[in-house]
């Protein structure tokens, strides 16, 4: 069996197969532990943005959405700070709702909150907001890139500051995951627009051969193995059993029933994807408190999955055990009656990532060595290239990100260049292997915790948060405070 | 009278009017003082470059020229350095021939020399090298921009280092004028590709309202006034006399004869441009030794011009005096019989600058206050915009350069960000007013000399060079040496 799924932060590459669960809408479905407690509020604005910053042959513009909260802002007269979230590959409201940290520290800093949506996502769709046109072919999609997005952020922030006559208000950028990569790159490329960046779980080193393509799945393996050796073995052994069982029609029907797959569609590949998705995203969102980022999940969901697998009640039936684990991810609320493998809905509007992965975001993640919890496989650039060719008629540029943003020898390069970046990584996060895990200089620092999953620090806080998480946030607040002290001092000096 | 000429480093904006002098070709016409003394040698190479780095809808490539000299190189095994000239708005051979400094210090540093031609100039023309197509309209010209050029340099340098297996060879970039702006920006944007930049006479602050639009002509005024008050007064007074004289046909014919203009064409505007050109470029190239950058010129040509004006032999005839000054610039060799105001030849291939000035390079320079040596005028953005609209059908983006590269509050922004940039400026250079004239940090330093014109430090050295110029070069060599020490040390450490 060969499992070749290209994992891209929040969305599978192809095929996209989400299970059918009751439609979720933020913030109504927030559960208590991560609720906004009334703090989540923003107004929606649109900015007329240039479609192509780097060529001049195209006067087209589009409406870029950004969310604003000035409840805590100290105002332009006080040169009070501006916190900007550099939006990632989806609806900005979704990321805003899941970035409670910014709301929670805004009062302390008297900060204006701005969440900017990434072009081609959410409601920030070029071509008059018509997604059908914008996503129709490589010519229209050609304007979807990280460099254009960063130039968007610079343009919008400068314009906003001018409009608010807040020229001297320092800007700090925040982001998680791809948004964290953008935040870090934004500080590096636009130091005249932002004084510092908090880049949470930003795998900026997952390009070229900087990071091993086995790193991602090694960490997932370790997450499960660390909970229970048996859990790891059961999952690892299940793939062969599924493969064998799927060889006959009757076997496939048995699999369908075991995993409560709806009657409309099943295939071996789709089932494997469905399970792979569950394991990967559970590892990514292995938070210490209940969450509802992708699906509603209990605290420490990896532990819960392994508990289901290790449960003596499930006997020796591997499928039943694996189903129990998958059920944690797909059906924690218990509302699902069956799972639709043919459901390609995209509630958070993440589809554009496939294009980005076919152009610049070539992030080798799907290597699996012998010990992997998933079947052995190698990262194969040519497969990606073929997919992209047939899907979009484009050839990826696997060296572009390291050309434009660097990454090789980052410690040497940034040791005496740049300043004011925090790289946070929790080592349970599969992406952490491609993050910056060591301090580079006095002010380009790595905060690393043994615990912690994908941008856990940016979540709404909770009474139940463990001590290490509280310490991470405290440290982040302290560092940002120092940036401001330095900034306001230099404002007086120069 | 209104003199509205938009000055762009080396070429007038419109109309372009160079005088007819015998065709000049480098290096054959080098005079002794700036000759290459046999050191000038290079081989010509071409690199297949991506036309559009920032969009993915265009797979087109073009052949980018670069010149190479490995005579002094210590080789990849020794991680010996690479010196790269970031080409400006013209034929790269011309800039190479006028950047003797790099050849002269290459032996000391065992450096490989690379001179990269800027896209759309010289032989680096997209669309199969066909300038007629490349320059035909805004769609094809759209790919001519500084951001694309910087990405070209990054891509080419990385590829070259890979091909030479010289991954650890540190790269230092050099550039003068627009090339100096590119060098500085390249260090800021691509610190992973270059460890430092020597940005000579780089007016990176001539954007938005960072620098006064009067600065440029104020410096020219000072250059001439500093030589002789009478010289300044005669030039300043001449414009009104020309204007008055040009009102009649007979008067225009008298002007034609006074200035030895060829019979084929004269107009008041063209004559004024012709004189303005002479004063501006003489000030820019007011070098302490004879030069042949734009035209063959004696040492200290401003002084020579004023000598001609102050010469009692020329009596009281203002036109004769001004002609004597212009003759220094246009006819130092004495070969010209008449000057053709209708000559639009472009020996150094600078025409693309008009496009750049109509898109991103909106550099306000043509303000003239009451004291100016030129007639009073204001910088008027709308005039530029109208010209660009009618000429190319584009609207400039006057805020783009400060959005993309910064400039406002540069001292505050770079005080704790970035490193290893030398900004050289000679204060006789009209562009120096928009240069970085103060140290920003320990390693972002300004070398400023009271004497010295446009990128004088990059010229071939001469026995006749004044002490201050030798000291500038020594200091530059020392600073670059320190970059290497630091780099090689960190190579061992990390």
Automatic annotation (TrEMBL), chains A, B:
Gene3D superfamilies: alpha/beta hydrolase, Serine carboxypeptidase S28, SKS domain
A single MF term (Gene Ontology): dipeptidyl-peptidase activity
Electron transport listed as a keyword: no
Keyword annotations of the record: Glycoprotein, Hydrolase, Protease, Signal
Span of the signal peptide: 1-19
InterPro entries per UniProt: AB_hydrolase_fold, Peptidase_S28, Ser_carbopepase_S28_SKS
GO biological process, one term: proteolysis
Entry annotated with the keyword Repeat: no
Family, as annotated: Belongs to the peptidase S28 family.
PANTHER family found in the cross-reference section: LYSOSOMAL PRO-X CARBOXYPEPTIDASE (PTHR11010:SF120), PROTEASE S28 PRO-X CARBOXYPEPTIDASE-RELATED (PTHR11010)
Protein name, UniProt field: Lysosomal Pro-X carboxypeptidase
Organism: Solanum bulbocastanum
């Amino acid at each position: 069996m060969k499992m070749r799924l290209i994992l891209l932060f929040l969305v599978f590459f192809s095929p996209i197969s989400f299970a059918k669960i009751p439609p979720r809408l933020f913030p109504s479905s927030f559960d208590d532990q991560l609720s906004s407690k009334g703090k989540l509020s923003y107004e929606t604005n649109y900015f007329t943005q240039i479609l192509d910053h780097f060529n001049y042959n195209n006067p087209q513009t589009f409406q870029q959405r950004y969310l604003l909260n000035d409840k805590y802002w100290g105002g332009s007269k006080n040169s009070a700070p501006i916190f900007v979230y550099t939006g990632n590959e989806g609806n900005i409201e979704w990321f805003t709702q899941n970035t409670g940290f910014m709301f929670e520290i805004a009062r302390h800093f008297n900060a204006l909150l701005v969440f900017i949506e990434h072009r081609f996502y959410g409601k920030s769709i070029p071509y008059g907001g018509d997604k059908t046109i914008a996503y129709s072919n490589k010519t229209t999609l050609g304007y979807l890139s990280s460099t254009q997005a960063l130039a968007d952020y610079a343009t919008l922030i400068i314009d906003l500051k001018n409009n608010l006559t807040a020229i001297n208000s320092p800007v700090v950028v925040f982001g998680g995951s791809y948004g964290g990569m953008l935040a870090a790159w934004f500080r590096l490329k636009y130091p005249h627009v932002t004084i510092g960046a908090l880049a949470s779980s930003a795998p900026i080193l997952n390009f070229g051969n900087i990071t091993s393509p086995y790193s991602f799945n090694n960490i997932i393996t370790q997450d499960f193995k660390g909970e229970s050796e048996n859990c790891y073995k059961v999952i690892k052994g299940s793939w062969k059993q599924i493969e064998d069982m799927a060889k006959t029609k009757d076997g496939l029907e048995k699999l369908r029933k075991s995993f409560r797959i709806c009657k409309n569609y099943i295939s071996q590949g789709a089932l494997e994807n469905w399970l792979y998705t569950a394991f990967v995203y559970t590892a990514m969102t292995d938070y210490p408190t209940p969450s509802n980022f992708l699906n509603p999940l209990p605290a420490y969901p990896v532990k819960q999955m392994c508990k289901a697998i290790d449960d003596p009640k499930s006997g020796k039936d591997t499928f039943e055990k694996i189903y129990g684990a998958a059920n944690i991810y797909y059906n924690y609320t218990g509302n699902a009656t069956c799972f639709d493998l043919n459901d390609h809905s995209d509630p958070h509007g993440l589809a554009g990532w496939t294009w980005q992965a076919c152009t610049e975001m070539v992030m080798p993640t799907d290597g699996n060595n012998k010990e992997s919890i998933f079947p052995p496989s190698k990262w194969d650039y040519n497969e990606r290239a073929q997919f992209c060719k047939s899907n979009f008629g484009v050839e990826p540029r696997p060296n572009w990100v390291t050309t434009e943003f660097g990454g090789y020898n980052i410690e040497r390069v940034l040791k005496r260049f740049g300043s004011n970046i925090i790289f946070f990584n929790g080592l349970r996060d599969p992406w952490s292997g491609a993050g910056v895990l060591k301090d580079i200089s006095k002010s380009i620092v790595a905060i690393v915790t043994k615990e912690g999953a994908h941008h856990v620090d940016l979540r709404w806080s909770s009474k139940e948060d463990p001590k290490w998480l509280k310490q991470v946030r405290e440290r982040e607040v302290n560092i940002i405070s120092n940036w401001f002290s330095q900034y306001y001092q230099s404002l007086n000096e120069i």
